[in-house]
Amino acid sequence: MNVEPEVRQESIETEEVEKYSQWKDAWRRLRKNKMAMIGLGITLVVIFVAIFAPLLAPHDPYYSPVMEDGQAELSMQGPSLSYPLGTDRLGRDILSRIIYGTRISLIVGVITQLIALAIGITLGSVAGYYGGIVDDVISYFINVFLAFPFLLFAIAIMAVFQDPGIEQVFLALGLVTWPGLARIVRGEVMSLKEEEYIEAARSLGAKDFRIMTKHVIPNCLAPIIVTVTLGVAGAILAEAGLSFLGIGAQPPMPSWGLMLNAGRDYLRSDPRMMWFPGLAIMITVLGLNLFGDGLRDVLDPKMRD
Amino acid sequence: MFKKSVGIGLLLVLLAALVVGCGGVEEATEEAAEVTEEDRYGGTYYARLGSDAPTLDPAHSTDSTSSRVIENIFDRLVEFDGDAEVVPGLAEDWEISEDGLTWTFYLREGVKFHNGSEVTADDVVFTFTRILDPAVQSDRANYYDRVEGASEFRDGEIDEVPGLVAVDDYTVQFQLEESYTPLLSILAVDSASIVPQDAVEKYGNDDFANNPVGSGPFEFVEWQSDHQIVLERNDDYYVDGLPYLDEVVFRVISESSSAFAEYEQGNIYEQIDGDLPDGQMDRILNSGEFDEELVVEPRLGTYYFGFNVQEEPFDNLKVRKALNYAVDRDTIVNVIRAGIEEPATGILPPGMDGYDPELEGYYEQDTEKAQELLAEAGYPDGLPGTYELAYNTDDANQSVAEALQANLRTIDVDVELVNVEWGTYLEKIDEGDTEMFRLGWVSTYPDPDNFLYNNFHSSNIGATNGSWYDDPETDEMLEKGRGMAPGSERAELYSEINETLIKDAPWMPIYYYSNTVLTKPFVNDFEVTARGEEPLTDVWLHPNYQ
C-alpha cells in the first residue's frame, strides 16, 4: 500500500521532465542553427535600441533647429560628428530619428500581432474545437479574408479611415493578419481535440472553456510562436509600406517608412535620406525573419516548405 | 534558390534602368522659325493634374484643378486675356448702363455647342438660373446675389429670375438691384461657363458633371476617375483655325516627384498645378538644365493656414495672434520652398488692389510676444492638448505643415497633422469640421472682391469661408466695396479690410504663390499668367513631337 503514492509521484516527475526538455531541446537545436542565432542577435539588439532609445539617441528626434531656432544652415547637412547620419530638411538628426523609429516599428509589430492573436486564437480555436456549422462559418470568413492581397487589403482598410495615423495602422494590420493565425490554430485544435488527455479532461467534467484555455491552446503554442515572430516582421514591413505611401504614420513621427517617403525627392541629389531608413528596415526585418525561420525549423518541422 | 537570385538580379537591373532612364531625354532641336502654320496642327498634349478633378460641371467648380479642365471644354460670355483684362468671348460686345444696373451682352451668331445645338441667349439665361437654383446647390450662387430677384429665387419664392432676360436669340440682359463692379470679371471665370440647356436636361443636373458639353476649344471624351481626363479637338470652334491640338490628355499624377520623373521622360509635357518636387528644386533652378523650360510667374494667390474661428481656443483673438507670431515665414519660404515664393505680409497678394507691403499689424516672428499673448489668453504654459492641423495630400503641403508644426512647438502648441484627399478635404472644410487647415486662395482675376468676399463674408460660411469668419463690420465693408467704381477710393477701402483681417487673424498667411512651371521646349505658345494656366487653345507642338 505504501508503494502506490511513490509510483504516482514518479510518474508526475517524468512528465515534467519531458515537458521541460521539449523546450530545452528546441533551444539546443536552435543554438546549432547559425542563421537563427544571427537573427536572434539582431532582434535582441533592435529591442535593446528601442528600449534605451532616449539614452542612445544624440538628439531629440522631433527637434528641428531650422524651424525652432532659426538655424537654417542645419537643413540637409551631410554626415558630421554631431550628426553622424546627417540631418533632414528641418535639420532633425537622422540617426536619432532612426533610433526612435525602432520603437515605432516594434510597437506596430507587437500590437498588430496582439490584435491578430486575440481574434485569431479565439476564432481559430472555436472553429477547430466545435467543428460543424460553427467551423463552416468561421472558415468561410477566414477564407474570404485570406483571398485579399495582404497590403492591398490593408490599404483598403486605411482608406476607410478619413485621417490615417499609427493607431489606424495597428487596427488595419491586425485585421489583415488574424486569418493566417486563425487557420493555423484551427488546424492544431482539430487534431489536438482527438487526443486522449482532452477526452480525459472532458470525462472529468471540465467545461469547454477550461479545456481550451488549459489544455488545447498551451499545446499549440509552438506554431503560434513561429507565426507571430514572422508576423511581427511582416507587420513592420507593412507599416513602412503604408507610411511610405502616406497612409500610415503621420509626420513628424520618426517612422522609417515616412523617412523613406521624405527622402524620395532626394533620391538623386542626396540618397543618404533613403539609405539609412531603408537599411534599418532591412536589418530589422531580416533579423526577425531569420529568427522566425529558425524557430519554425526546431519547433514545428512539419510547417517547413 | 537559383531562380530567386535571377529574379532579384532582374529587379536590380530594372531599378537601375529606371534611375538611369530618368536622365536621358533628348532635347528638341529648335527649328520653330521654319514651322509653317499648317505644320502646327495635330498631336496630343499630355498635361498633369495634381489630383482628380472634383467636378467638371462649371456650376460646382470652386477649385483650380477643375477649372483647368473646364476652361478648355467651355466658353464664357467674356474671357480674360494674358494681362487679366476682360475681352470678348461668346459675347462679341456688351454695354453697361450709366447707373451700372443694366448689363447687355450681344452674342456671336452661329456658335455651336459640342452636341450641335447653337449657343443662344436662352442658354445663357438657363446657365445662370441654374447656378442660382436652390436644387443645384452651386457654391457660386452668391456671385449673382445682386441680380434682380436672385435672392427670392434662391429662397424658392419665385420660379424665374426676373433679372436674367433673353431679349432676343442673341441678346441677353442682366438687371441688377445694386451696381456691382466685379460682375464683368465674374462672368469670365470658369464657373460662369455657358452650358447648353438641352444637354443639361438630357443628363440631369447631377450627371452633367460626368458628361460635360460646352462650346470650348476641346470636346469632352472620357473621364477615368483618378486616372485621366481626355478631350479632343472641337472642329467647329468659333475661332477660325483653332485649336491646334488634336487631343488633350490630363493625367492625374498626385505625387510631384512621380510627375517630375514622367516629365523628364517626356510622358507629360508640363509640370504645373502643384509644385515641383522639393528635392529637385536646386537642380531645376541652378543646374541650367531647365533654363529653356522653366517659367516662374508671380500668382495672385496666398498660401495660408486658417483657423476655425468658431472652435475653442481659436475663437480667442489672442490665441490666433500668438500662433501668427510664432510662424517663421522667411525660413519656411527659404528652406522649405527653395526661395521661389515671397513670404506673406498680409492677406491680399501683390498685384491686387489693397495689397500693402508694409501693412500695419503684420506678424514678424516674435516668440516672446507669442508666449505673452498666450499667457494673456489664459494659457501661460501653452495650449493644452493637441489640435488638428489638416492639409490635403501633397508632398509640398506636408513639408510646410511639418515646418509649421515645429514652429508652433516653440510656444508649446502641439498640433497633429491630418492629411486628407482633396475632394474630401474641401468637404471637411466646408462643413467646419476643422481646427486649423491649410489652404490657398488663388484669384482668377485681380479684383480684391473675389478674394475677400469669398473668404470672409459671412454669407460664404459653409462654402468658401472656411474659417467660418463672421464679422458684421467686415461684411458691411465688403458689401460696400462691390458696388464701388474702380479707383483709388476702392483700393483704399480694400487696404483697410486687409488690415482689419490681419489684425483679426482668422488666417496665418504663409506666402504669396508663384507659378513655377516647366514645359517641354517643343511646346509652343503655352501661356501661364497670374491666373494660372490659360486654356490650351493656342498651344501647338513642334511637328517632330506630334
Question: What is this structure's SSE topology?
Answer:
The complex is a heterodimer of chains A (305) and B (546).
Chain A: H1 3-32, H2 34-51, H3 53-56, H4 65-69, H5 94-130, H6 132-147, H7 150-160, H8 166-192, H9 196-203, H10 208-219, H11 221-244, H12 256-264, H13 272-299
Chain B: H1 2-21, E1 44-49, H2 64-73, E2 78-80, E3 86-88, E4 91-96, E5 102-107, H3 121-132, H4 150-154, E6 164-168, E7 171-175, H5 183-186, H6 197-207, E8 218-224, E9 228-233, E10 247-252, H7 256-265, E11 270-271, H8 278-286, E12 294-307, H9 317-326, H10 329-336, E13 342-343, H11 367-376, E14 386-392, H12 395-409, E15 414-420, H13 422-430, E16 436-442, H14 448-456, H15 472-483, H16 488-504, E17 507-519, E18 523-524, E19 528-529, E20 532-533, E21 540-541
Parallel strand pairs in B: 1-10, 14-15, 14-16
Antiparallel strand pairs in B: 2-3, 4-5, 5-7, 6-7, 8-9, 9-10, 11-17, 12-16, 12-17, 13-17, 18-21, 19-20
Q: End-to-end span of chain A in angstroms?
A: 54 Å
CATH level 1 class label of chain A? Mainly Alpha
Beta-strand level of the residues of chain B, as a percent range?
Answer: 15-25%
Order of helices and strands of chain A: HHHHHHHHHHHHH
CATH fold naming of the largest domain in chain B: Dipeptide-binding Protein, domain 3
Structural shape of chain B? globular
Largest interface: A-B, 25 and 37 residues
Number of DSSP helical runs of chain A: 13
CATH superfamily of the largest domain in chain B: Dipeptide-binding Protein, Domain 3
Largest sheet report of chain B: 7 strands, mixed
| Integer-rounded radius of gyration of chain B | 24 Å
CATH H-level name of chain A... which superfamily? MetI-like
| Secondary structural class of chain B | alpha+beta
Low-confidence stretches of chain B: 16-32
Secondary structure class of chain A reads: mainly alpha
Number of strands of chain B: 21
Whole-number total of structural domains of chain A: 1
Helical fraction of chain A equals: over 70%
